[in-house]
């Protein structure tokens, strides 16, 4: 291990746990009340801009992806209560969940079947709109369903979209870009599942495979794209557009809670747990939720023990100045969507004053939790998604946070949401393999 990092192991218990490959729970000392958060990298107005753009694109999305008709072309997922899973967690882990436990089923999002359908598809749509505006082919007041016409496909076909991915972001970018008519190149790291590569190729996407990790795939993809003036690179490490696509989820979740008569206020706290890779999706969702609920929402990221890059980046304050490999952590995990060794500095700095904490979880637990959710609720999500339960199975650590926030007498009225990040697209044979792993 690099000796420069020893001081962090000595000073920060969660970092010491991480370096020893132990599950841990880091509580964020940098968090401050909403009125004291000074965030300049992004603004609430940008969320509204993203929301309006997605509304403009809804007629097109509904036309080319009929499965979105139920929501009139908006890409949204169900928010479902999971009481039997709550009982399982309480019995198996003494989780002490006295309030409501819910699952945000981004695992079932239309088109790409993962949370990345939010940010990834949004960024591609924004790029397409920018190009079409610039060419004088499209105007904000138009019916965007005209984008399905062949003249637009020919126009977009002169352009290329590229992205580096461990899997789900590549699926969302690849599927959406190909549908619009773009040439698409997805640079996939060694962690990416074969079925995701196969699915992309079946949609006409060029998949470039690397034997190295996620960061190497991103770096090479960026270099390739920079050499082509007609190419656009979706930069998962620094993209404000991706971030805003995720942030739109805040107001939408608020509307879903309201529709189910679930209050969120001083007496009814909301706890949200989101799996984290490089940080874009959980960061954007957290930012969006905080704009709606302020201090009444408590957001936690969850990561695999072998790829806990955001926890290391935030706990040390080094952000992208640190990699899991600096602590002799492999970065290799079955949670392919979370197999990232170096966090996004952009995301880490934005959420630094608002994130409650980060919990880590061993791979073998992901499979146990996946089977439990299927057994108790007849709901399948992929292993990466099951990291969402990491904080709930560490009740002593969670209770430390609850006491520090003075919420002990409010927890019976709390709502807990585990954010399921992927699962619908997993082929049947892979499901069976997952369900028998670790038995």
Structure write-up:
This protein is of the alpha/beta class and 439 residues long. It has two domains: 3-42 and 68-111 and 243-436, Rossmann fold (3-Layer(aba) Sandwich); 115-242, Rossmann fold. Helices cover 43% and strands 13% of the residues. It is built from 17 helices and eleven strands. It has helices spanning 6-11, 13-19, 44-64, 83-93, 116-134, 150-156, 168-180, 194-202, 214-226, 240-247, 249-259, 280-293, 309-316, 345-351, 363-377, 395-404, 428-436; strands at 25-27, 79-81, 100-105, 160-165, 183-188, 206-209, 231-234, 270-275, 297-304, 357-361, 415-420. The strands form two sheets. The chain has a seven-stranded mixed beta sheet, sandwiched between helices. α12 (280-293) links the parallel β8 (270-275) and β9 (297-304). The longest helix has 21 residues, at 44-64. The chain starts with 5 loop residues before the first helix and ends with a helix. The model has no long low-confidence stretch (mean pLDDT 96).
Percent of residues in helices comes to 40-55%
Q: What does the main sheet amount to? A: 7 strands, mixed
Q: What is the number of E strands?
A: 11
Coarse structural class: alpha/beta
The count of helical stretches stands at: 17
Instruction: Work out the strand percent.
Output: 5-15%
User: What string gives the helices and strands in order?
Assistant: HHEHEHEHHEHEHEHEHHEHEHHEHHEH
Spatial strand arrangement across the major sheet: 1-10-9-8-11-3-2
CATH class assignment of the largest domain: Alpha Beta
Shape: globular
Unreliable sequence segments = none
- Mean pLDDT comes to 96
**Could you give the distance between the termini?**
33 Å
CATH architecture of the largest domain: 3-Layer(aba) Sandwich
Q: Which fold name corresponds to the CATH topology of the largest domain?
A: Rossmann fold
